[in-house]
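Escalated from tier 1: iron/sulfur cluster holo job.
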Amino acid sequence: MDLTEKLAILGESARYDVSCSSSGSRREGKPGHVGNTVPAGLCHTWTADGRCVSLLKVLQTNQCVYDCVYCINRCSNQIRRTRFEPDELADLTMAFYRRNYIEGLFLSSAVWRCPDDTMELMIATLKRLREQYRFNGYIHAKAIPGCSDHLLEQMGRLADRVSINIEQCTTESLRLLAPQKAAQAIFQPIRYLSRRLITQKDELAHFRHTPRFSPAGQTTQIIVGASAEKDLQILRTAQKLYDSCQLKRVYYSAYLPINDDQRLPSLATAPPLLREHRLYQADWLLRFYQFTCDELIDESQPDLDLALDPKSAWAVRHLDQFPIELNQADYEQLLRVPGIGIRSARRIVAARRHHRLTLDDLKGMRISMKRAGWFITCNGRYGGPFLPNPENLRSLLCDQSGRQRQRSNQISLEEIYADSLCANV
Ligand code: SF4
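Tier 2 regenerated the structure:
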């Protein structure tokens, strides 16, 4: 098999791994045009300093000894299999880099023979890139659950970001859908990386030239909708990972019906894209808006409201805390108002140092008054057209998000597959 064929197979096999950022583009190549954002093989991510970079996204191999029910590469599927030798993949990456096709590498892999053998193969690729070619570009490597600590250490020193996929949130789902993976084998490397990232921070404070270890941190991916987990379990897992393992990011990946297996939702089931979208919104609130998981959902209502974004849903349930006066509310209270984001909250705090704000002042602050108006007063004036009760406020807010909801439901399966190769950080 020549390199082009290997690249086509291993680029295609990597498209279901979503731990990278989206370019948001779905433009296919057309005759007479240049460029094509759809084919597998490229994805985008943001580096630690905020640059968006394009990455070659491939698997080291799709030869897998595991049989995870939801995965295209599972050993029981009849698909074309191949493997990059470390030299081949490093040479290919450099060739693309020199032609300015890519700025880095996203390297994942199926489990070839055993976790340690696969890690050795991946590390050999990274070593050739870093040591022989002196490649200084961005590398995101996926570690294999169950690998040894010393291999994780080597990978962390070579890659900018190392991540391990959790995929299922409970041991029951793991046992059912990924029987060869144990929770211990997944969480042990996550904890190792977390400890190393903490010691690295400490070392850097004392020694400027200490060797870097995964400077862009670690991330993980959870598959949504392949098993019975509720949003509450998923978000609690994410919150624990943010709080105790210092993860940079948790990715939620709507289950795509690829395999026909009775343990999975039926092939006719549409991927839960809107649910994935709501989870990303809730995740954003956990990371940047000082919400906790139990504020957003609880045991009595363990799934996020699909009709309303999580911040609006929370605000409608807590109308006793509104309306708030924008000239007096503290920064944390401002962040809880639907339609007011971090930048707008900062602008409000900065502007009111100079004068009392009026409703007219809010126009230039990129505040969505259609959403925020119901929850605020400004200089004593109520922002909404009338004072609503909880039920009609909910339906008014639902109507506003209806257009977006329709769009999410209309995305075709082809678009989802195209998206999944470059979906969200
Ligand atoms: S280990 Fe499981 S999820 Fe990973 S490639 Fe193999 S079958 Fe797929």
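The radius of gyration is 23 Å.
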